[in-house]
Amino acid sequence: MDLDIAALGFRFGDDFALSVPGLRVPTGSAAVCIGPSGSGKSTLMQLCAGILLAESGLVSLGGVDWSALSERERRLRRITAVGLVFQEFELLEHLSVLENVLLPYHVQRDLPLDEQARERAVELTRAAGIEGLLRRKPRNLSQGERQRVAICRALVTQPAIVFADEPTGNLDPRTTQAVFDLLRSEVRERNATLMMVTHDHSLVDAFDCVIEFETNPNGSIARERTR
Ligand code: ADP
Ligand code: MG
After folding, report:
1. Which residues are near ligand 1 (CB < 6 Å)?
2. Which end of the chain is least crowded, N or C, by CB within 10 Å?
């Protein structure tokens, strides 16, 4: 699914302003967001995922502008087309690993939790190397294992586009590479689009396009790096 941004303007009151003059991430390609802390990377991910709405300009997935949809339509589109890996994982502590991976099916009635979905969940955890942990609670997992649960959950619905906000933050270099390879290969296999935030410059070369965030007194601006 294509991601298109044109003349995007967004602000958090007087605290923060973000502008993105133009950006296109075509179906099947992978973009990485880099820039200083507080420059708006997480904010842009939320705008692209339709969690926040632009104040001006356009943010569209597959040619559909988020602003043209009702709240209900946005929620439905997010759950069916978008995979999200949050900076803080957002795992539910009272649920097992398997239940956490299948969470999208529990929060949305439009997604039927059938045998195929269960098989896909188990298959993903196998690819992620956490299939032995399905009955564990998140508190009994390492950071790297928790991160892999979050990634399996983002992929289980087979989303056309995946947004991953620092999915390898706080991981050691080896786990970083393994977690990233999993995400990249699962996305590539289905020709899905990937947009990811990272501070890890060793990962940047694996992307088709680099989006750089710059801060100045008037706020932040994000642009595609030309290379
Ligand atoms: P990054 O992910 O690049 O570190 P963020 O997108 O999280 O940056 O935040 C960008 C700026 O917006 C920061 O200055 C942050 O304090 C501010 N900010 C984030 N969320 C909110 C909010 N809900 N209300 C007001 N300001 C916010
Ligand atoms: Mg952030």
Report:
1. 12, 15-16, 37-43
2. C
